[in-house]
Amino acid sequence: MSDKIINDQGLVVRHDLVALVEHWAIALSGLLLLVTGVFELPMANRYYITSLPGLSWSGDFIKSMYIHYAAAVVFIAAAVFHLLYHGIRGEGGMVPRRGDLKESLVVMRSFFGKGKEPPFHKYLPEQRLAYGGMVFIIAMLILSGLVKTYKNLYAPDMFLTLVLWATWIHNVFFMLFVLAFAAHIGAILLRPNRPMTRGIFTGTVRLDYARRRHPLWIQEMEPESEPLDEVKTAPGSGDMAEKAEIREETEEAPPPAPVVISEKFPRRSNN
Amino acid sequence: MKADKKSGLNRRTFLRASTGVAAAGAGLALPGKVFAAGPRRLATLIDLSRCDGCPGKDIPACVGACKAINKEKIPEINEPIPEPWPRKTIEDWSKKREVFDRLTPYNFIYVHKAEIDEGGQKRTVFVPRRCMHCDNPACATICPFAANHKYENGAVVIDEDLCFGGAKCKTVCPWEIPQRQSGVGIYLHILPSLAGNGVMYKCDLCNDRLEAGKLPRCIEACPQQAMFIGDRKEIYARAEEQAKAIKGFIYGKKENGGTATLYVSPVAFAVLNETMRKQPGRPDMGPAARRMAETDKMGRAVLQAPLFGIVAGVAGAFMALSRRKDRVKGKGESRE
Question: How many domains does chain A have?
Fold first, then answer.
């Protein structure tokens, strides 16, 4: 875990290079798999997608299959790497925890102005739940896809029941993958979550945002800071949050100088 | 039956092959080995030196027998047939069921008449055409709904209850064998205007009859005993023998990566192919490469991908742990 506070830039490192490469390898290859998977349905010609500039290949099932396979190599290798690399290193911050479901309902209610957000660790409870769901969906897609690929190459007369299971699991989880992808993008579009977006591009988020919304994470990086046991809600869901959002809308760079967000969370020097 | 005995493929031999009494270890092929070979695997042989096109008959016997047995296969058409959107292609053969000189959803076999001129000598060769039941048929393996399947006995069969009629199987078939009938099938119950367009139909090698230990109807009905079915190895050997005997040629052995249908002809297939113009429902007999072979290498990389991830993940994690250990050690030493 390379999370760290960069005080002079007012930033917190949220994802290291490995995590960024993993995320984008899975995201981009997943997107390509999704598109070429759709092209494996006899839709491109019917819907005139083949007439679109640069997409004449979309009606060629063999070419689409080749691209689908190429994307699958990246997707599978990256997914397996992710599980092993972080599993061996004991990094389980995204693994769903007990109480996440209940807590995520509280968070979602707060998005609609009902109640206040609890203080967060590095990840929101719904992020952990979504991660668990996505791992399951991707695992099913990979397993069923491997069976289908083996059949295509070596066993065209594979036992029909197995072929039907693999095919329909692949189809159903393809649809769930589309929904999960849409939900992932939808979550980013929610205003309170937007400051996290830069993290997946640059690896860092703003320190003031992290202090306001992820105090438990900050505390992990600053173990000497005041414990948060008594804190029931983070100061992010009130006036301070609005102020932060205004800053966000203006797209101004965060002030380099230390910012004291709350008396409950005194700004510490990291030097 | 007489001819069957002559060929060494009598009913007893056929039954033994089809029921797999002698079968042991039949099952999935292993990488690097031939596709799904096994004792229960069947193949058919069409001997063009024997087929005479059934002169004097309105319809060749094989075609008539096939039509009769599959008469009720297609259910009543949903009228009016929903218009697909946005491409408005409707294929309706329900009012032309009697057509027998090409493949249609109501006609799974037809006989092509090839008029050959061999050095000024006229010759006629009759070529029954139907699904080749390929060894690794893309029509089946990449059907998005697994509605088309290759069985262990070699028959490639479309499940009309699962097929959406998207015609992908026809597109990837080198001979464009499957034929669509719009207005029937599961798509009518889902989004008839937006997805699907009927059901694809083609020869299923009378798979139900095979499972019951019977011969395919076309083979049974042929008065010339021009068609044979039996254990794949025996049929392949028989085709070689026959080709040698008549100084003839074989088609179907290598086409599309190999098939379960071998044609033996006294005339070169390149010559026969000149009499065939590939058009809807009328396949040619040209060279047919297995296009899916273009994806095989990448497919193998997909099967190896978990291994790439395991190696990279374990190596990466241990390198990172080792770096962390060094850092901790370094800090400890500097404090001392």
Answer: 1
The neighbour count for residue A194, using CB atoms within 10 Å, is 14
pLDDT, tens only, A175-214: 999 999 999 999 999 899 999 999 999 999 999 999 999 9
Residue B317 has pLDDT above 50, yes or no: yes
Domain that holds residue A78: 18-91
Beta carbons within 8 Å of B33's beta carbon, 6+ residues apart: A154
Test B298 with A70 for CB contact under 8 angstroms: yes
Domains along the sequence of chain B with CATH = 2-291 (3.30.70.20)
Question: How many residues are recorded in chain B?
Answer: 336
**CB contact (8 A) between residue A85 and residue B35:** no
CB contacts of B187 in chain A (<8 Å) are none
| B227 in Cβ contact with B221 (< 8 Å) | no
Ranges of H-type helices in chain A: 17-39, 61-88, 100-111, 125-153, 160-189, 197-202, 207-213, 215-221, 239-250
Indicate the SS3 state at residue B221. Answer: helix
Q: Which of B247, B268, B290, B75 is nearest to A62 (CA)?
A: B290
**Which chain A residue is nearest to residue B144, measuring alpha carbons?**
A41
Give burial (CB, 10 Å; 0-12/13-18/19+) of B25.
exposed
Q: What ipTM score was computed for the predicted complex, to two decimals?
A: 0.87
- Preferred mutation among B163, B302, B325, B327 to probe A, highest tally of A CBs within 10 A: B302
Shortest alpha-carbon distance between residue B58 and chain A (Å): 38
**Residue of B36, B135, B316 lying closest to A85 (CB–CB):** B316
Residue B200 in contact with residue B158, Cβ under 8 Å? Answer: yes
Q: What is the DSSP letter of B260?
A: S
CA distance A103 to A269: 31
